[in-house]
Design goal:
heterodimer, A: mainly beta, 6-stranded mixed β-sheet, 5-stranded antiparallel β-sheet, globular, B: mainly beta, 7-stranded mixed β-sheet, 4-stranded antiparallel β-sheet, about 60% strand
């Protein structure tokens, strides 16, 4: 059974700070990694995807992947109150197109 | 937003009643998925489809069936609803292996 683990939080950061969200996964064959943001009562929306080891930046967001250590992280720079949401990490396997989701980390950005 | 709609958006039903949820997409994507989301469990895959009439089970498929007779529609049926199936149900679509999944707005189902 593939597993994706996230700290449930809540992670509280002050406005303007860097928020660091972490995720570990169990399947060494995993090839694709995704971060979704979900506001309360809404559906998940994609923030970032990453396939290769290293960092990938998009605006205030940076995804980091380390396949050897089996973790993926999301950094949010200059955190804003509007970033307050649940962040879901998702991983798919070497074959097929099924995603396994972590339970999510609640982020609270305080102004 | 990806062209995905779900109907109904909210439903209250009684134990033992059959329920069908519909997912409709306008993106002509090959893959369609049904997930349920419950507190503490995150998103769990119920069933998915990789083409018309091609479906497979996910992690929590017991008590659910699906059908896909057209590319754009993916139906989820609770054959005899139970209180444990009270949840929020999300449909998702994807263009291909390893590609991003995009989610519909969700259906809140309450089984009394």
């Amino acid at each position: 059974q593939k597993e994706v683990e996230q700290n449930s939080g809540p992670l509280s950061v002050p406005e303007g700070a860097i928020a660091s969200l972490n995720c570990t996964y169990s399947d060494r064959g995993s090839q694709s990694f995704f971060w979704y943001r979900q506001y309360s009562g809404k559906s998940p929306e994609l923030i970032m995807f990453i396939y290769s080891n290293g960092d990938k930046e998009d605006g205030r967001f940076t995804a980091q992947l380390n396949k050897a250590s089996q973790y993926v992280s999301l950094l949010i720079r200059d955190s804003q109150p509007s970033d307050s949401a649940t962040y879901l990490c998702a991983v798919n396997g070497e074959y097929g197109n099924k995603l396994v989701f972590g339970a999510g980390t609640i982020l609270r950005v305080k102004s | 937003d990806a062209g995905i709609t779900q109907s109904p958006r909210h439903k209250v039903t009684e134990t033992g009643t059959p329920v069908t949820l519909r997912c409709h997409q306008t993106e002509n994507h090959r893959y369609m998925y049904w997930y349920r989301q419950d507190p503490g469990h995150g998103l769990r895959l119920i069933h998915y489809s990789y083409g018309v009439k091609d479906t497979d089970k996910g992690e929590v498929s017991d008590g659910y069936s699906v059908s896909r007779s057209k590319t754009e529609d993916f139906l989820l049926t609770l054959e005899s609803a139970t209180s444990s199936q009270t949840s929020v149900y999300f449909c998702a679509i994807s263009g291909g292996d390893g590609e991003t999944q995009y989610f519909g707005p969700g259906t809140r189902l309450l089984v009394l």
